[in-house]
Fold:
Amino acid sequence: MKKLILFLLVFVLIFPCGTHAQIGEKIIDSELALVSPGMVVDWRFEGKVLLDGFYKGVLEPDGTTAGHVWAGQGCVNDYCFSEEGGSPDPIIQGSSLRCQMRFFVPSDFSGEDPVSAKLRIVDPSGQDFGSGILYMMLVKPVKAYFVAGEKPVLVREIEMDGCTPGKTISEKTMTAKTAPTIVSGNMMIPFRLLGEIIDAEVGWNNSIGEASYVMGPKKVLLKKGIDKARLVYPNLEKTLAMSAAPVNIKGNIMVPLRFVSTALGGSVEWDQFTNTAIVTFPGCSS
Structure:
């Protein structure tokens, strides 16, 4: 299986937007981006920590071998670079870092294993401030249609033109054990169904009432009756609030479709005229 070298490495710095628990080395944040060949991933991040002085970033590849050419650009406070650098102007005391990453996925990218890039931040004294890690994983593009009150779910395998869904390659219908249901404005679906659609590893811990999804290095954990989800990476764990907690409906654990879809790397559209949620993987985020 081919691996790749990050030729023009991506700048990645992901700052906290939820509650984080650091494990081992000082990781500021981690994320998994699901991608397809030719896609452009564009992320913007803003740090919550107030800083002062000159900060720079050092890009570190994951040791993969030749095979593809990746191009990326990172920016810190509007100063952009492809390998390492920082703004020629110090961060004004009491301000925070503003970060952007644009990543160009090669059109011939293939392989099942995720790849990664680390951005190590160096503070004004030359000490490590912390690192951000981005994992990138290829997925088969799909579009799924969840209709409120209807058990059949149409799933289409599609072509992707960058971030734009293209023509349908094939389609099939899957049947939900419990029909998607609107609860307090949130569409809830059986937790296993979405995992089956995108080939995520799905689990259920009955002793603690916890559902789990695993996509490459990322694990999403949701507990019945709790409106917060845990996102677990190899060196980081964080907690994010959900608009609805998982519930038991007719003997099936139902989870909020929008939250789980976006947490796993998809995007969601809502058709109010047909009460249909349209989920696309991979989703384009910024």
Summary: The longest strand covers residues 164-175. Residues 191-198 form the longest helix (8 residues). DSSP finds two helices and 26 strands in the chain.
